[in-house]
Automatic annotation (TrEMBL), chains A, B:
Enzyme Commission code: 1.1.1.85
Keyword Ribonucleoprotein among UniProt keywords: no
UniProt-listed GO biological process terms: L-leucine biosynthetic process
NCBIfam families attached to this UniProt entry: leuB
Superkingdom, taxonomy of origin: Eukaryota
Species of provenance: Dorcoceras hygrometricum
Protein name from the UniProt record: 3-isopropylmalate dehydrogenase
Length: 351, 351
């Protein structure tokens, strides 16, 4: 009889309400599929700041490390926007990623037939989009040193950060990307700015080098500015995209908006070993928190990724994913106006 | 009797053919408006590499510096793609920007009523888009030091770049942006990643500080990942956007693709004083070079920006811009299949 421990980090804004729905769905699915889930809820982000004074308490990180997988709602809100850097909710999230060593962030952007109208792109451009952004998550300019604010030789204020990648950091994310592409449609596009940045030149060279180990994957390279254009021009040309932390931040958000269904998009962050981190890609939406308006399906689909990538419970993952599709087919077609209560009802009944 | 010297840098691919059409239009417009233009054509990019071994010969840079304005076609091509960094056409372009000290890059993205169908965005989302990206062009990660490829303490290959901004660099681009917004619809959105990067925190703080000098401009801030989404979701919300070099590279290309008319979009790069640099935002498109297929209107509109921002010849600029509109109204509505010969014919006849 299998048993897993899941750390729940509801976080801020709509985080708690969407996590609670996903938790119930996970419970139900585990009892159907015959394994046990134990949940441990811990504070994180603004909620942790208010409670403990830091955005990622030590207890939260160690609970996360000790569990089999971590499900995060969302963090942040106006209240903490002007906090100093080390007291920002976002800093807690970066510490969590670093602490769990989850260097590979998988962000699918899929246009479901039921939701094609939600995209601002023309139907013929949006329909059938099904891509995966593999974003490097624990390196690059997010973590590079030196960084800081200082006074330069002319007595002038300066802000600086370092974009840096070592060969092994590129290799390991590239491997995840090649493997991902292999299990999808076999096409990998590596995005960089190798015509300007040395960090990107190394990136391109290492990715190129690994390609010989994946002869079944068709590799191409694209500059980041062009990728930002191509996602708008013809997103269907992409299968799997691999890129660095900051470009991945930008392009995965752009890709998600192209689907028009940001309330539907999950993400998984994985390391070499140890628990993965699963979270919807949307934010904490403080404006609509507590009003039963937030679309919980991105978090439910994140729980699906948790079952699949985090626990290896593929059947349970499939059950959850199809309950989401059934719920959509029941008529929940807009991403904006929602009755979370109704979604909850149908979701559970379709499991 | 006024006389100006213009340096022409046709460059590579379709560069020469589009520059030649813009040159003729400039000549015609100058004779109508009663000033003289002297042209000096110099090699640049891949063409210069083939001719002289470097992508920006000293003679080219000094001719550019000595002139009243510089009109560039496009640079780059497969042939030079694998060159070492200092022998890339792109490096020549960066050296030109640095040499001319053109720190402010203005990139309009406008959806003309005649061309609204060219956008991949739904008509109601695309129509009426009229925004301007003000991109910092001579600082940030493009030029920051230290940079390079090296071996780290573990004997491993590393690539690194430095994102760095000093207060005065932020202030001067912010001023250009506030002035630009003031002459447009009075809304400025500053884009950064201040929740993660110190360079962005300083950026936000300096822009915020200057805002009090422009009480007539409504300032907002947005994270770059959100901006990449909002451009897809609702581009009409933007009037003027100001951002750093790399974010500006990505967002201005995304914005241009949103218009669907990349063959129609000009740009201006301006410094504190000295000649400005004017160029279409499209690339050198080697595939269609020499076939009379390239849309020359982006370069013609760049010549319009040259007249306006570079020479202060507002009337001539307006004449050129309306000839472009008349040419479009004559029926040239697609950005892809073009008869440059016909465009040339109508353009000149409408001047
Ligand atoms: C909140 C922020 C620090 C974070 C990031 O930039 O990584 C977010 O935008 C994301 O993409 O998960
Ligand atoms: C060619 C390249 C160096 C350049 C840049 O990145 O600035 C181009 O993309 C642009 O936007 O003008």
């Amino acid at each position: 009889f299998k048993s897993y421990t899941i750390t729940l980090l509801p976080g801020d804004g709509i985080g708690p309400e969407v996590v609670s729905i996903a938790k119930n769905a996970l419970l139900r699915v585990s009892s159907i599929e015959g394994f046990e889930l134990k949940f441990k809820e811990m504070p994180m982000g603004g909620a942790a700041l208010d409670l403990t004074g830091v955005p990622l308490p030590e207890d939260t990180l160690s609970a996360a490390k000790d569990s089999d997988a971590v499900l995060l709602g969302a963090i942040g809100g106006y209240k903490w926007d002007n906090n100093e850097k080390h007291l920002k909710p976002e800093t807690g999230l970066l510490q969590l990623r670093e602490g769990l060593k989850v260097f590979a962030n998988l962000r699918p952007a899929t246009v479901l037939p039921q939701l094609v109208d939600a995209s601002t792109l023309k139907k013929e451009v949006a329909e059938g989009v099904d891509l995966m952004v593999v974003r490097e998550l624990t390196g690059g300019i997010y973590f590079g040193k030196p960084r800081g604010l200082s006074t330069n030789e002319f007595g002038e204020e300066c802000g600086f950060n370092t974009e840096v990648y070592a060969a092994h950091e590129i290799d390991r994310i590239a491997r995840v990307a090649f493997e991902t592409a292999r299990r999808r449609r076999g096409k990998l596009c590596s995005v960089d700015k190798a015509n300007v940045l040395e960090a990107s030149m190394l990136w391109r060279r290492r990715v190129e080098k690994l390609a010989s180990e994946y002869p079944d994957v068709e590799l191409s390279h694209m500059y980041v500015d062009n990728a930002a254009m191509q996602l708008v021009r013809n997103p269907k040309q992409f299968d799997t995209i691999v890129t660095n932390n900051i470009f991945g931040d930008i392009l995965s958000d752009e890709a998600s908006m192209i689907t028009g269904s940001i309330g539907m998009l999950p993400s998984a962050s994985l390391g070499e070993s140890g628990p993965g981190l699963f979270e919807p890609i949307h934010g904490s939406a403080p404006d609509i928190a507590g009003q039963d308006k937030a679309n919980p399906l991105a978090t439910v689909l994140s729980a699906g990724m948790l079952l699949k990538y985090g626990l290896g419970e593929e059947k349970a993952a499939q059950r959850l994913d199809s309950a989401v599709l059934d719920t959509l087919n029941r008529g929940f077609r807009t991403g904006d106006i929602y009755s979370a209560g109704l979604v909850r009802y149908f979701l559970i009944s379709f499991l």
